[in-house]
């Protein structure tokens, strides 16, 4: 199954994508994770992406589209994939349609007021890529999955969060209409408890999760 997860930053795309990709045995491809890894390793892509990410802007399409095109050509994507954080604008969606055929685009919707609280309390594990909210952690500094030290993403600060939300509304939210027109859109309420959102995604895709 070739899937795209849409939704604003903080909607729970990454968390849900991890569960769904494991259940369906397809790779979870997060462009945000790919960029953060590239930045940590100091690769040419990481160097190009850093300034944009730190300001909450989109990394240029030429860089992003090429990175995804290469990733989807790898062997593990032959039986499907789950894209999380791509496409983020119409140009990326049109490029994706040229090199791959989607089965569904799942939109996880959450209101802005909720997103700000979610993003500012979010912690990230650089080792296993897990994402957690401080209200759910026994120890704010330790990853409950792998024991590594948790960090706050540099772009989860109030100024950058505001930019990311406005970029989302201006550039990414029109993608729901794009995919609705193609008959691929599945809408899910992301404001429900995590397990309920997973169950809703399962129903929308008609798969066992
Ligand atoms: P995310 O982890 O999905 O919230 O992404 C973090 C940041 O990476 C975004 O704010 C963008 O700066 C950059 N990024 C991730 N995916 C894309 C994309 N598809 N197009 C452009 N920039 C992206």
Low-confidence stretches: none
Count of strand segments:
7
Q: H/E element string?
A: EHEHHHEHEHEEHHEH
Q: What is the number of independent domains? A: 1
| Radius of gyration over C-alpha positions, nearest whole angstrom | 16 Å
How many H/I helices? 9
- The CATH architecture category equals 3-Layer(aba) Sandwich
Strand content: 5-15%
Query: Roughly how much helix do the residues carry, as a percent range?
Result: 40-55%
Shape: globular
**What bound compounds does this protein have?**
adenosine monophosphate
Which CATH class is shown?
A: Alpha Beta
**Fold-level CATH name:** Rossmann fold
Q: Order of strands in the sheet with the most strands?
A: 2-3-1-4-7
Structural class: alpha/beta
List keywords for this structure.
209 residues; alpha/beta; Rossmann fold; 9 helices; 7 strands; globular
Explain this structure to me?
The chain has a single domain, classed as 3-Layer(aba) Sandwich (Rossmann fold). The chain is 48% helix and 14% strand. It is built from 9 helices and 7 strands, in the order E-H-E-H-H-H-E-H-E-H-E-E-H-H-E-H. It has a 5-stranded parallel sheet, sandwiched between helices. Strands 5-6 form a two-stranded antiparallel sheet. A hairpin with a 6-residue loop joins strand 5 and strand 6. Helix 4 packs parallel to helix 5 and helix 6 packs across helix 7. The radius of gyration is 16 Å and the shape is globular. Adenosine monophosphate binds next to helix 2 and helix 3.
